[in-house]
Specification:
The chain is α+β, with helices and mostly antiparallel strands. 31% of the residues lie in helices and 28% in strands. The chain is built from 16 helices and 39 strands. It has a 9-stranded antiparallel β-sheet with strand order 1-9-10-11-12-19-16-15-14, with helices on one face. The longest helix is centred in the middle third of the chain and has 20 residues, at 380-399. The chain is elongated and about 80 Å long. A hairpin with a 4-residue loop joins strand 32 (497-498) and strand 33. Residues 17-229 form the Glycogen debranching enzyme bacterial and archaeal type N-terminal domain. Residues 281-646 form the Glycogen debranching enzyme C-terminal domain. It comes from Syntrophothermus lipocalidus (strain DSM 12680 / TGB-C1).
């Protein structure tokens, strides 16, 4: 599984498939199956200097040359402004994604296997070469590291950086400019000599498509080489820390990585390959946050940091289905500790890591995460610990908090300020929301009702001054107001937003939350009507459209420059995470249908097949609304992986929380 050969290796097919490795602290390595970097985010070492943020590209790639007897072969390949520089993909024999991204080259009857792995908890990448040389031919393998030292969102051209280089034995230290983070390269043997040249005009095709700077120059500080007439193994280490390495150390790191992957793969009592791949993908997003000392969830690679909303939605699939209960506790506690005025952080900035609180729904998704945690673990002690925070959130919403977030007299949550986009549909152009949703949003109030019911359930079990009746009364008020205000009888579905003056009947995927949560807002006929409508106009093989194609303003392709992409982001683009709630709703509503399991399997299958496309072994953030629904956005997204994993485990395999929580009135 996830092995590629032949026409799948070279461009264009080989540049459409990507791979990702992570180190558990926000750093990563990534490229394409062909070995051509098509993004400015591609590189062998993107280091998180203040985990999990302050990410910098230090080692972009290695260019390899091989001499067999007197015949020279270039294994490297880069796309430049003038075309391809090198055609190394012509010598590619196979690419394997697991256990590590592995390129296998064939030169005559010599096979070279190149494995790439990251060291857990370090900004360190290892590149391992294994040469199979059956006829004992004389060969020389040369490595040219192409380095830089930039924020991973930028590109850099040739400049006056001195790239101070210090060589000792098989190790070299590179300091791009005085005070820059140092990069250390070391080999376990062979020769090392100074190089010192610029590699010009690398062209990043996907950045050009996104209307961003797409040309870059990289620097080569040194050359590593080894000669032999035997089969051999050779390793190169790139890191922000200095260390001399040998074969024993390299083998130890490799074995530890393999052992860890095996442990992760045994988290579920299933031998299903899809579960194993998704479980390993889940691990990519769970990282350490240095300033809290706790785990958090990276929302997506290659460009997102940790986002509160994304973390709470992704948490059940990433941590609970996979048995990582301790990580789940840390993640929840980390966000609870950051609550201000009833709001958990929307996101953390990519430089200082300071939190931003411009969200109405992240705090409400916290209730969902705690509910699922309790369902899987039965850990009442921890829930009791965070219970005061849950109460405080509801109290702050009732009193009114930032950004116009408050509870109206009908019990429903309203929100919004000029220029703000506080729901998950948060794209803005020139400071104005692309999808204005100011007022009472359907998914916000679905979550609000769930939060009140869940809090009533918890309060009835904990000793304290609060009464479960006060939250039950609130939930009852919310439900009666919800049905009255949101049910759109002519369409047989729910309004998306109820404003002060009018109601927005635009058909969007947000209403799926009203029928997916374990609390009932609608009667059974209304629920089925909503599901049918979403199935008719929003459902695709890879998720739900954010807007019906029949609606004015629908954009079926997510492409173009930043403004063009922002216009499409929530205006028809397909998202995976609402699909998870849709499948859960379908599974419950059609529970008595004899073909339910077959139906759910059909719904899940396209996303399982997608594991072989895009970022191999991962799930994309979004897809085009129009056929053929090409993957877009982040090539690996936490809540996409989390929801596919949760749905596949819970609804197909039958792995669910063992602790029943009945919070219905």
């Amino acid at each position: 599984m996830l092995v590629f050969a032949g026409p799948q290796l070279g461009p264009p097919a080989g540049t459409k498939r990507e791979w990702l490795l992570t180190n558990g602290i926000g750093g990563f390595a990534s490229s394409t199956v062909s070995g051509i970097n098509t993004r400015k985010y591609h590189g062998l070492l993107v280091a998180a200097l203040n985990p999990p943020v302050e990410r910098r590209l230090l080692l972009a790639k290695l260019e390899e040359e091989v001499c067999v007897e007197s015949r020279k072969y270039s294994l490297f390949c880069s796309q430049t402004v003038g075309g391809y520089s090198g055609h190394g993909f012509e010598f590619l024999y196979e690419f394997h994604r697991f256990p590590f991204p592995t390129y296998i080259y064939r030169l005559e009857n010599i096979f070279i296997r190149k494995e790439i792995m990251m060291v857990r908890g370090e900004n360190t990448v290892l590149i391992l070469y294994h040469v199979l040389n059956p006829d004992n031919l004389n060969f020389r393998l040369c490595l040219f590291p192409l380095v830089t030292n930039r924020d991973y969102h930028w590109t850099v051209r040739k400049n006056k950086w001195p790239f101070l280089t210090s060589i000792q034995d098989n190790r070299v230290m590179i300091e791009a400019y005085p005070g820059a983070p140092k990069l250390y390269l070391s080999a376990d043997r062979g020769r090392l000599q100074r190089a010192g040249f610029w590699y010009y005009d690398l062209f990043y095709e996907l950045e050009a498509e996104r209307g961003l700077d797409a040309v870059e120059d990289l620097y080569c500080p040194a050359k590593f080489e080894i000669e032999s007439n035997r089969s051999l193994s050779w390793a190169l280490r790139a890191s922000t820390e200095d260390l001399a390495i040998d074969q024993e150390w390299v083998l130890k790191q490799r074995n530890e990585s393999l052992d860890r992957m095996k442990r992760l793969g045994r988290a579920l009592p299933q031998t299903d390959n899809h579960i194993k791949v998704l479980t390993l993908a889940a691990d990519d997003f769970i990282v350490e946050r240095r300033n809290t000392g706790k785990k958090t969830i990276i929302a997506g690679y290659p460009w997102f940091t940790d986002w509160g909303r994304d973390a709470m939605i992704a948490l059940p699939g990433l941590t609970l289905v996979t048995g990582r209960y301790r990580d789940a506790r840390e993640i929840i506690k980390g966000f609870v500790d950051c609550v201000q005025e009833g709001l958990i952080p929307n996101c953390f900035s990519d430089d200082s890591g300071c939190p931003h609180y411009n969200t109405v729904d992240a705090s409400l998704w916290l209730f969902w995460a705690v509910y699922k945690y309790l369902e899987y673990t039965g850990d009442w002690d921890f829930v009791n610990e965070v219970y005061p925070c849950l109460c405080a959130i509801v109290d702050d919403y009732c009193r009114g908090t930032r950004y116009g977030i408050k509870v109206d007299k009908d019990g429903l949550v309203t929100q919004g300020e000029e220029g703000m986009a506080l729901t998950w549909m948060d794209a803005r152009i020139a400071g104005q929301p692309v999808t204005p949703r100011r007022g009472k949003a359907v998914e916000i109030n679905s979550l609000w009702h769930f939060a009140a019911r869940f809090l009533a359930y918890l309060t009835s079990r904990f000793e304290g001054p609060r009464s479960g009746k006060e939250f039950t009364k609130l939930a009852d008020l919310v439900r009666s107001s919800f049905v009255r205000e949101f049910w759109f009888e002519p369409g047989g579905y729910l309004y998306d937003v109820v404003g002060e003056v009018d109601k927005d009947a635009t058909l969007r995927c947000n209403q799926v939350i009203a029928v997916s949560l374990p609390t009932r807002l609608l009667n059974s006929e209304q629920e089925k009507s909503v599901i049918r409508k979403l199935w008719q106009e929003l459902y695709t093989p890879y998720g739900l459209r954010t807007l019906s194609p029949l609606s004015e303003g629908y954009v079926g392709t997510y492409s173009g420059n930043e403004h063009e992409r922002d216009r499409a982001y929530h205006q028809g683009t397909v998202w995976v995470w609402p699909w998870g709630h849709f499948v859960t709703a379908v599974s419950r509503i059609y529970a008595d249908y004899s073909g339910r399991l077959m139906l759910i399997k059909k719904m899940v299958k396209p996303l399982l097949i997608h594991l072989e496309d895009g970022c191999v072994g991962n799930v994309s953030e979004i897809f085009d609304g129009d056929f053929p629904h090409s993957p877009r956005g982040c090539f690996a997204q936490a809540w996409s992986v989390g929801e596919v994993l949760r749905v596949y485990a819970e609804e197909v395999i039958g792995v669910k929380g063992r602790h029943k929580i009945d919070i219905q009135d």
